[in-house]
Amino acid sequence: MDSFELNKIVAAVLLVALLVIGIGKLSNVIFHVDKLETPGYTVEVDQASLTSVGSIKQVEEKIDIAALFVMGDVISGEKIFKKCAACHSIVKGGKNKIGPALYNVVGRQVGSVSNYKYSKALSSYAKEWTFEELNGFLIKPAKWIKGTKMAYAGLRKEKDRASIIKYLNQNSDNPLPLP
Fold first, then answer.
1. DSSP string covering the chain, please?
2. Helix axes 131-139 and 53-61, enclosed angle (nearest 10)
3. Is the terminal CB of the chain with fewer CB neighbours within 10 Å at N or C?
4. Which superfamily does CATH assign the domain made up of 52-170 to?
5. What is the tens place of the pLDDT at every residue in 105-115?
């Protein structure tokens, strides 16, 4: 192929590109649409029904944790915990990794492992890791406690959360009785 043929191909491609852009600009001029100053209709929204962190916590606290635990089992929790094991240890006397050691976590004060540097959000969160708190946190940690360093996306499936919580509870000196 000689340079003349190559020039014709390049010219054709450029002409098509210019036509597409030109037709787009021309259609905007011809079919000009004025935007409305006010919407055509309004949507009434009850402020109490809007989802916020506080209402998420209220909704999650209303979950029947006993019914949730029926779905999960410790063996599945051990398998699912392998995702967590990249950042957390679960053995008694285990060292902190990227995240704190989770042995004896159920019933423990949030942010209370002494040799681990927590985010300000977790260290100032004045609650215990109850079954309900763990359930809410495991759904989406960054939403449950704003400002946490934990970048994990969370567990959507209730069965997986129930299994993990049962597994965490079992890995304790004094496992709490399940509700």
1. --HHHHHHHHHHHHHHHHHHHHHHHHHHHHT--PPPSS-SS-----GGGS--HHHHHHHHHTS-HHHHHHH--HHHHHHHHHHHTTT---STTPPP-SS---TT-TTSBTT--TTS---HHHHT---B--HHHHHHHHH-HHHHSTT-S--------HHHHHHHHHHHHHSSSSPPPP-
2. 130
3. N
4. Cytochrome c-like domain (1.10.760.10)
5. 999 999 998 88
The residue ranges of every structural domain in the chain are 52-170
d(CA 164, CA 35): 52
Q: pLDDT tens across 104-146, in order?
A: 999 999 999 888 999 999 889 989 999 999 999 999 999 999 9
